[in-house]
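Dear Dr. H.,

I hope your travels went smoothly. While you were away I took the liberty of generating a structure for the chain from your last submission, since the lab meeting agenda had it listed for discussion. I wanted you to have the full record in hand beforehand rather than looking at slides cold. The sequence, exactly as received, is reproduced here:
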Amino acid sequence: MTLTFEDVKTAYDAIKDATIRTPTVKASRISLHLGIDLYLKLENLQHTNAFKARGALNKLLTLSEEQRKKGVIACSAGNHAQGLAYHATRLGIPSTIVMPEGTPFNKIQRTEDFGAKVVLHGTSFDESVQFTMDMAKDNNFTFIHPFDDETVVAGQGTIALEMLEQVPDLDAIVVPIGGGGLIAGMALAAKSINPDIEVIGAQAEKFDAMKAKFEKSETHFGGSTLAEGIAVREPSDNNLAIINQYVDRIDSATEAEIEDAVFDLLSSEKLVVEGAPGAGLAVIKNNLKKFKGKKVGLVICGGNIDSRLLSTLILRGLVRDGRITRLTFEIDDTPGQLADISRIIGESGANVVEVIHQRMMQSVSLKQAELEVVVEARDKQHVKHLVKTLRAQGFKVRTDNEV
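The corresponding predicted structure, in token form, is as follows:
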């Protein structure tokens, strides 16, 4: 790949009128909590809620009239699909998107809403890619790769131009990595503007292919990940060449760390993000000593998280913070017990969310019952105080972390 800084600047001029110049804002609450100056580039506010729209548009603008008439094709079940569909339709270019069978309906619907024809094929991304290439050849479509294309990469690099115009004195930029297109374009641009700036990649530990190539170590693949947008098994060697030249290091994060980070961004900064930027924040949290006293930029590369997944993540986050907890009681099966427990919980300032009263499916004695009460509290300390009060009143109670 012969990508240059001039290519990125040319891309910026080409796409600036049809893309959103997303803000770079200080993450005030998270910065206070972590003890660093953290700035967020909000690409979740971009068209189709992800950065992919930049590279897709830059590529579309380079097509000949004949290529535009015949149409374009891509293989993607995520942000590249929607970004390409949106801009292709806007430019009057027919687009076809191949997605694996089993792709969630909401992703199919969003892509079709943007004007693309969706074709379902294969049970995996790899199967879908080969089918896509065959369709492109048979129909004379122009295939647009999500990350292994220098024109696409140049479009993604425009994010760094904007970030360093908005916050010129950033000391470091953290960029999520899947196939490497985003960090390759951004690293080249950022280092061209400021050779001293640090560029750090962030990957999910379960899909650390680029980290392994960068460090010449073994990969670690293991099941599904919340950061599905960067779950790439075969990243681009062309992008790797740029990464080797301009990226300082690549770190990874566990699923639990990514989940916590996504919840932090939602609860502290009121930002709906997907797993990839969660990996970026998790990497920052894991390396606070390295970032101490520095201005750090993080690319919030996308916000297309499934709403059902998000609702579960929120509940799990509330449980981890102690704001929702389950109390399990062994009580005498006599009238008034539940009323007394409810009164004590209410007087403590907590709120009863759910009650399950068991008489049959349990191990307690016949004249006793097991009572599960889900309560909403302020935090873990509030829960500890509530449990202490209940025990002082003679109730036998335990919390989940005491089981």
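Two observations you may find useful: The mean pLDDT is 93. The longest helix spans residues 150-166.

With kind regards,
E. W.
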